[in-house]
Amino acid sequence: MDAVRLRGEQALREGRWAAALADLTSVAAATDDPAAWLGIGEASWWLGRLDHSVAAYRRAYTTALRSGDRESAVRSAAWLSISNTSDFGNRSAAHGWVRRAQRLLPEGAPGALHALVWVTHAHRLLPDAAAAGPWASRALEAAHRCGDRDLELVALAQSGHVAVARGDREPGFALLDEAAAAALSDADRRFDTVVFVCCDMLGACALAGDTRRAGEWCRVAEDFTSRWGCPFLYVDCRTLYGALLLTAGRWAEADRLLTAVLTLDEKICPAVHARAVAALATLRVRQGRFDEARAMLDRSRRPSAELDTARAEVALADGDPATARRLLERRSTPSLLCARAQAAMGDLNAATTTAAALDPDGPEVVEAAGLAAAAQGRVAAAVDAFETAAARWADCSAPFEEARCLLELAESAVNDDPVLAAARGRTAVTIFQELGAVAAADRSAALLRRLGVRGPRIRATTRTGPDLDRGLTAREREVLDLLAVGLTNPEIAGRLFVSRKTVAHHVSHILRKLGVRNRSEAAAYAATHGEDGSLARCAVPGRGATLGA
Fold it and tell me: φ and ψ at 462, to 5 degrees?
């Protein structure tokens, strides 16, 4: 039996999961050894047999306590916490198991076992930087002191995730890049180290909206899973990246990725599967495909905050803010969507309270203030808030949210400033059309028809044609218009209420897409390719949107 045990342990180290499972199952049946049950739990997890994995870890915990093997009891409790967090989305059970592991830790100087438990604490609490940060720091220090390179890389990645969640993106991603590069290149690393590090990387990318970095590391993670397995990593990375693509307006890619996730058995990582359903249902709502979104959510009975949020999106689209509010208020985390539902019901006190709990530097809090001002009939305050929120969403590369704020601005200003309303409405309808947001585009077009704006395709400018389009977004067309009349980047930033960095980003994209070398060539191109040779003009000085001549 000792030879079978050694063979099974060697198979685990080499990532031969089926062989390891077969050998260690034989050992466990003969000896009831907690170390064998731990190995069965690990191999089953990599093979996507989550129920078997949890049962094995529980058996390992029980037999370890009975035999006095405190180390195996701590390890099995830690892995039960990790699995409940990542695979099943049961944070209460995860909390219970990590507390059990913490209580069983040996006294004395912290070592690798302490680092594992502290890493588990941080894993359960992320992306809450304030709560997770101290645990990640303690784990990093303990792992470094005892020389456990794998746990040190995991704690390093968690520290980077914490920094990004705190808003310190550059130093945070520096830690994450370092941890990921080392984890994927070190031939002696443990396989689970790669999983932890990649998950922290993708989680941080989701917080920062960094689709480029997420795409690069997703490709690395897929290469890893194609060789070693791990359905969880495959599904989780795709789901996180798909949600990022949704926010970034790359809907066709998001659709393909999220749909691929849902072809896998729901028993493989049910918590991640629920997040994929929620993201795809949200996409369907934004596309105006409400029946598909409802059907998708009706088939998913699993309790989940993400699913409740998607159901609330459907309810709001159906004109049922009461249901949306009920779904969202039973979750403790305040959200812009909840403030939207409260404002739609006329409960401005609740909407204001919810808004006050949002990130003060983010676009959500400003948009929520705009909703409250609009509901109170304070047009000027609503217009200013929606303008600022749209600019912040643009800086976050969130085009649907940007267009939503522009449309809300247009609807608020329709009576007091119809020229401004038409200008913002044109930009909104163009963005919605480019995204494929049919219902929102129709709503924008209806507003523009009410204002007397005509045309089969209503854009931010009147210029059309394949030469000028060249893939330019609605905002890039606006920037090109202002660039063409000689405005500098700071002046364009002032007109469009965006940062200078955002304008520089748009100008760089314009030059690349038009195939020109500098601003002068771009201006000349715009002048010679406009409809009837004319440039669009700014509707209202200082407001920044453009209307066709």
Answer: -85, -5
How distant, in Å, are the alpha carbons of 41, 308, 360 from that of 267? Answer: 16, 20, 39
The span from the CA of 351 to the CA of 371, in Å, is 9
The Cα–Cα gap between 475 and 496 comes to 9
Q: What gap in Å lies between CA 418 and CA 355, rounded to an integer?
A: 28
Sign of the C-alpha dihedral, residues 359, 360, 363, 367? positive
The one-letter amino acid code at 79 reads: W
C-alpha pair distances (Å), 276 with each of 201, 239, 296: 18, 5, 11
Across-strand partners of 547? Answer: 537
What Å distances lie between residue 437 and 50, 192, 211, 221, 232, CA to CA?
A: 38, 40, 21, 31, 31
How far apart are alpha carbons 388 and 405 in whole angstroms?
A: 9
Helix (H) or strand (E) holding 199: helix 191-208
CA distance 57 to 75: 9
Q: Which residues, in sequence order, are CB contacts of 11 under 8 Å at separation 6+?
A: 17, 19, 20, 23, 43
> What Cα–Cα distance (Å) separates residue 472 from each residue in 253, 430, 441, 444, 477?
18, 11, 18, 20, 6
pLDDT tens for 439-448 read 899 899 989 9
Tell if the pTM clears 0.85, that is, is over it: no
Distance CA(198)–CA(61), nearest Å, equals 28
The phi and psi torsions of 537 (rounded to 5 degrees) equal -120, 155
Buried b or exposed e, range 264-289, using 16+ CB within 10 angstroms:
beeebbbbbbbbbbbbbbbbbbbbbb
pLDDT in tens, 456-502: 545 433 333 334 445 677 677 778 878 877 788 888 877 676 778 88
Selection from 323, 317, 46 nearest residue 24 by Cα: 46
Ranges under pLDDT 70 in the chain? 186-187, 234, 264-265, 267-268, 455-471, 474, 495, 497, 527-549
Contact predicate 53/91, CB 8 Å:
no
Write out pLDDT tens, residues 146-162.
999 999 999 999 999 99
CA distance 381 to 359: 20
242 touches 257 (CB < 8 A) = yes
Distances 223 to 120, 154, 198, 237, 523 between C-alpha atoms, Å: 26, 20, 12, 12, 44
Half-sphere exposure for 252 (CA within 13 Å, toward CB) = 3
- How far is Cα 213 from Cα 236, in angstroms, rounded to an integer? 16
